[in-house]
Design goal:
With about 425 residues, the protein is of the alpha/beta class. Helix content is about 45%, strand content about 15%. The structure holds nicotinamide-adenine-dinucleotide. Nicotinamide-adenine-dinucleotide binds near residues 9, 83 and 151.
Length: about 425
């Protein structure tokens, strides 16, 4: 099929490359001229395992093209995906400006009947607004659909190529047929294409993220409770995770969820609840608890160091999770702000997010190219992201390079006994 993907971010780029890989002719359009120029040169603007070969191969074979001309991309396609950002608005609802701007361009370029699919995460009722924005510009018949994306950054290519499920919200046989044709090659092993009405599809995405955010937050709260009652969250996790109704995944405590989805989607769902007179009490508590969780590493640091004033802190891990360079809403943002406010200086390291860190922190922190270089002269080390390369620790190197003997491990990567026997004050999360 001839496909246009508007918005070439984490979602749009992965889906554009994935759809090209299955034989479609795909044009990815974005208003960011710099990003499009880099992509045209086969430079991938984000870190996403497995993405580069897909882009390079499909671009070389002519199935994948990049353009800043959104109008032309629309005119050339039968099916148009809107995959632009839906950031948090000032009132915490989802900001639909980009989605509706694109809808308007689609309407103005409706040179033949098309299926227009919202891939961005949008509140219930957005498809109606998209339909109205398009209809205001054209008399040509068109069909709208909602097709929320469930990929995880860091495993996005794999998730897109082999999705657990594809959710499709439609109100016309034309849209259903178009999306089925497009997605059949990705579910050959029998995973379902779940077809539903548009409002349910829109809500399914938020409900999925909300469930996961609740789960993470509950585990963080259990871990904090363990810290206070002398229990071990590792045992609690295994104890509850072996109950099939609960399951093993997503049960690791940490410094609060971040990224481009959970924080803003939880807030947007709270906002939807308010709009319809149904307060989402649980999510309001989750949102508050997550903000508090992001402050835990700095709090522990201050407790163990006595004061932050005049101290130097090394930070390992800036991305909101491993396998991505995305720092949106990362716990590192809170930590750096709090540590600096307390009068300490920082040297930071991340295997993939250093360019993003430089953009965000500029000269507020120092940067280490190697993780052990971050430790030189540090009073404390804080580990924020669960990168594999942080898992094995050379304690001698820590001892040699650090001035102080404090390690705050917000991902429970290390064995407490080992660090303590080497003379370190080691604080993890939810372990005695
Ligand atoms: N990142 C994820 O893991 C993920 C997963 C599932 C769903 N989502 C949802 O998908 C959507 C996109 O997320 P993302 O992380 O890819 O965002 P992103 O910020 O990485 O990318 C969005 C892109 O849209 C472009 N854009 C903005 N306005 C435009 C316009 N008028 N015309 C053309 N391009 C425009 C931007 O330049 C940017 O490149 C969001 O709604 C998000 O909630 C994201």
């Amino acid at each position: 099929m001839k496909v246009a993907v508007i918005g070439t971010g984490y979602v749009g780029l992965v889906m554009g490359a994935g759809l090209a890989e299955s034989g479609n002719s795909v044009i990815c359009a974005d208003v960011d001229a710099g990003k499009i120029a880099r992509l045209a040169r086969d430079e991938i603007p984000i870190f996403e395992p497995g993405l580069e070969p897909l882009v390079v191969r499909n671009q070389a074979e002519g199935r994948l093209r990049f353009t800043t001309d959104v109008a032309e991309a629309v005119r050339q396609s039968e099916i148009v995906f809107i995959a632009v950002g839906t950031p948090q608005d000032e009132d915490v609802s989802a900001d639909l400006t980009h989605v509706l701007d694109v809808a308007s361009v689609i309407g103005a370029n409706m040179n033949a009947s098309k299926v227009v699919v919202t891939k961005s995460t949008v509140p219930v009722g957005t498809a109606k607004k998209v339909r109205a924005a398009i209809a205001a510009k054209t008399k040509t018949p068109f069909y709208v659909a909602s097709n929320p994306e469930f990929l995880k950054e860091g495993a996005a290519v794999q998730d897109f190529m082999k999705p657990d499920r594809v959710v499709v919200g439609v109100d016309s046989p034309e849209a259903e047929a178009g999306l089925r044709e497009l997605y059949e090659p990705f579910v050959r092993q029998g995973n379902p294409i779940i077809v539903m009405d548009i409002a349910s599809a829109e809500l399914t995405k938020y409900a999925a993220n909300a469930m996961l955010a609740v789960r993470i937050t509950m585990m963080n709260q259990f871990a904090n409770l363990c810290d206070r009652v002398g229990a071990d969250i590792r045992d609690v996790r295994i104890g509850i995770g072996s109950d099939e109704r609960i399951g093993k995944q997503f049960l690791f405590p940490g410094p609060g969820y971040g990224g481009s989805c959970f924080p803003k989607d939880v807030k947007a769902l709270i906002s939807t609840g308010k709009d319809v007179g149904f307060p989402m009490d649980v999510l309001e508590a989750v949102d508050r608890a997550n903000d508090a969780q992001k402050r835990v590493p700095a709090m522990k640091l201050k407790e163990l160091l006595g004061t932050l004033a005049g101290k130097h802190v090394a930070v390992w891990g800036l991305a909101f999770k491993a396998q991505t360079d995305d720092m949106r809403e990362s716990a590192a943002l809170t930590l750096v702000e709090q540590v600096r406010a307390g009068g300490a200086t920082l040297t930071v390291h991340d295997p993939q997010a250093m360019h993003e860190a430089r953009r965000r922190f500029a000269d507020q922190v120092r940067y280490a190219e190697h993780r052990y270089d971050a430790l030189d002269g540090a009073d404390a080390l804080v580990v924020l992201t669960e990168w594999s390369e942080y898992r094995v620790l050379d304690v001698d190197e820590l001892t040699k390079r650090m001035r102080g003997r404090v390690v705050v491990d917000s991902r429970n990567l290390y064995e407490p006994k080992r660090l303590r026997s080497a003379g370190f004050t080691y604080s993890s999360i939810g372990r005695p």
